[in-house]
Amino acid sequence: PGRIAVPVFSAAGRRGGHAQGRSVVIPDPQGGAPRYQIDASFSGFNLAALQDEIDASKLQLPGADALPSARPDSGAVVTGQARRGGRVQQDETRRGRLSLRVSGGELWRVPLLSRVIEVKALQLPTGEPRDFATADLVVDGNTITTEYVSMLSRTFEVFGYGTITLPDFGLDLVLHTRG
After folding, report:
1. Contact of 150 with 159, CB cutoff 8 Å
2. Which of 112, 116, 142, 162 is in the most buried spot, having the most CB atoms within 10 Å?
3. How confident is the model at residue 121 (pLDDT cuts 50, 70, 90)?
């Protein structure tokens, strides 16, 4: 009793992309915070548009639907799967996994990736696209462990692992290169 289940949901992005999945919220019999679980897969989302959507939702701006893209479009497209569970409004209980694949476009134009490359003082090969990135993340409370992250081209790869701590987004990342 009181269990809320969404056996199938489906959504389309305003600027491309599709997501589908399922979710459930289960009340605590002792009156504590209810538990939740969500499983989703997504494909075809434009990376720049997705970043703009996330920023707009954080700001909760009225009329966010009409916001133009604030980022230059690198042409990158995001595909992946996500699973997350925990207790409602108890961030320390969240657990989950996220697998992302970003392909197409020039990924060095994506702000976070270009900053990491700059900090590492890497000299990327010129004249060839850097058009594929992947990340596998595990969420455990306020810590996100990046089990594997990479960006590659035909002749070059930047790869690594590390942690991100929330809510301040503290980054401890170890990167290596090949090529």
Report:
1. yes
2. 116
3. very low
Phi and psi at 52, nearest 5°, equal -65, -40
175 beta partners: 160
Mean pLDDT of 72-83: 88
The pair of structure tokens assigned to 1 is: 């009793």
Distance in Å from the first CA to the final CA of the chain? 58
Three-state helix/strand/coil letters over 156-176: CEEEEEEEEECCCCEEEEEEE
DSSP string, 45-114: EEHHHHHHHHHHHHHT-TTGGGPPP-S-----EEEEEEEEEEETTEEEEEEEEEEEEEESS-GGGSHHHH
pLDDT at residue 142 is higher than 70: yes
